[in-house]
Amino acid sequence: MRLRNFLRTTSFRLALLFLLLFGAASLTLFGFLYVQTSGYLVSRVDGWLHREREAFSDLSRDRFMARLATRLAADPERTYVLFDPAGRRVIGGDLDLPPQLLASIPDDHPFDFTYRRGGQKTRYRGLTYRTPSGNRLLIAQDLTMTRRFDDLLVRSFLWGGLVTAALGLAGAAIAGLNAVARIDEVTRATQQIVAGNLSERLPTRGRSGDLDRLAHVINGMLAEIERLMQEVKGVCDNIAHDLRTPVTRLLAGLERARRRARTTDEYEAAVDEAIVEIKSILKTFAALLRISEVESGARRAGFTTVDLGTVAADVAEFYEPIAEEKGVTLEAIREGGTVPTVAGDPSLLFEAISNLADNALKFTPRGGRVELRSFVKDGSPGIEVNDTGPGIPPEERAAVGRRFYRLEESRHTSGTGLGLALVTAVARLHAMDLTIADGVPGSRITLSRRDGAGLPSGQPIVSTRTSALRLVEPDLSAVRTRSQIAGRGQ
């Protein structure tokens, strides 16, 4: 099973494929070199044969014989044989060709032949020249050295091919074993993840290879899945914890009204208190559904060009009465002359900025200041909410975006703990970064486009005033109901 997995690995197959391709290319190159080299050596022999033939032409008989004797004595590796018209050897080397073979050989054309001497075959390349007297001169050269060179060339290629094949197979084996080891590591990590250990991650080796890049992407996906699973696992406990108090108050109020109420006004007050608590519960569920809707990405189809400065101005105008009542200065500021435009859903962006403004107003003391500052920095549009409140401790900033998380564990301040969770979901939907930093004093929360890609300011800007009223009106009605209850209690 292990060997079969090894042979099926992509690394081994790719290495084997490249080895075959390299072998085919090497074989083609060697064949070309072999043909060219052999042809070059043969052409040199042919050139020598023709030069020797010209050296014996147009000579008298005495000079012909003298030159032949000189050649026989000077170059023993080259053979000169003179045959009479009947094909009998007259003078020269020991090459005794049969008369019928000699008669079939055309003159002045090089040819190859084999001569057996002492039980061994020797290959020659020769040329015949017919003299004016009718004799035939055979000029031949022993091809033993040429053939040895050819054999050496072939053996070198074979040994080189064997070494290359061995090294290629060894490299393919190493690559395959490395791939099997990586796959085994990934398999073990995946099995642990499937078993429920969501904190496990695929192993990486820090080499920026293909598998490492894929593992980093998958690890990012696993981190997001772990975050979502942790939210899903904790949402039931959080819902039970946050809804237990209003449900308990609702139940206690109804039981108290049944035991103590005697007049119509007392019953109406109890009913109004129940309505407030029920609306608070419904608000919590509506916020949860809203976050789920945003995280699903269903609202992305309705994106249009939105001016963040216009959204900030609408939020400031809408919350101005609340700021005046608390004695807090609320101002929308547009930095620079560039319009900070993004592709987004105007209602969701208004809701996100409203939640930030609401939190800032909630925790800023009387006489403080809240700023909604829109900007374009390095081509990245964004909005910044500054306040002069107590701020958010650094150790709490990573957790405030979770659902139902509250800095006040005692829950004395009104709220559901879902505001920043909704802001985080809206930011993720719009490819924006949510950054929490220290103000001077207070806190500074920034929403900015992470890729620096704003939209052209020439496109029409969508107003958010209608969506503002739709989104915040339920909260104002709840406030009015509480005020009526407080008046009756007085």
Structure report:
By secondary structure, this protein is an alpha+beta fold. The chain has two domains: 1-197, no CATH class; 298-489, 2-Layer Sandwich (Heat Shock Protein 90), CATH 3.30.565.10. It contains eleven helices and twelve strands. The protein has helices at 2-7, 10-56, 61-74, 99-104, 144-194, 210-260, 264-295, 308-326, 346-363, 419-429, 465-489; strands spanning 78-83, 89-92, 111-117, 120-130, 136-142, 304-307, 329-334, 341-344, 369-377, 380-387, 432-438, 443-449. The protein has a five-stranded antiparallel beta sheet. Helix 8 runs parallel beside helix 9 and helix 9 runs parallel beside helix 11 (465-489). The protein is rod-shaped. The two termini are 83 Å apart.
SSE inventory with pairings:
Layout: H1 2-7, H2 10-56, H3 61-74, E1 78-83, E2 89-92, H4 99-104, E3 111-117, E4 120-130, E5 136-142, H5 144-194, H6 210-260, H7 264-295, E6 304-307, H8 308-326, E7 329-334, E8 341-344, H9 346-363, E9 369-377, E10 380-387, H10 419-429, E11 432-438, E12 443-449, H11 465-489
Parallel strand pairs: 7-9
Antiparallel strand pairs: 1-2, 1-5, 3-4, 4-5, 6-8, 9-10, 10-12, 11-12
Helix pairs in contact: 2-5, 6-7, 7-10, 7-11, 8-9, 9-10, 9-11
Number of helices: 11
Task: Sketch the topology as an H/E string, one letter per element.
Answer: HHHEEHEEEHHHEHEEHEEHEEH
- Please summarize the sheet with the most strands: 5 strands, antiparallel
Mean pLDDT: 77
Shape: rod-shaped
In a nutshell, what does this entry contain?
By secondary structure, the protein is of the alpha+beta class.
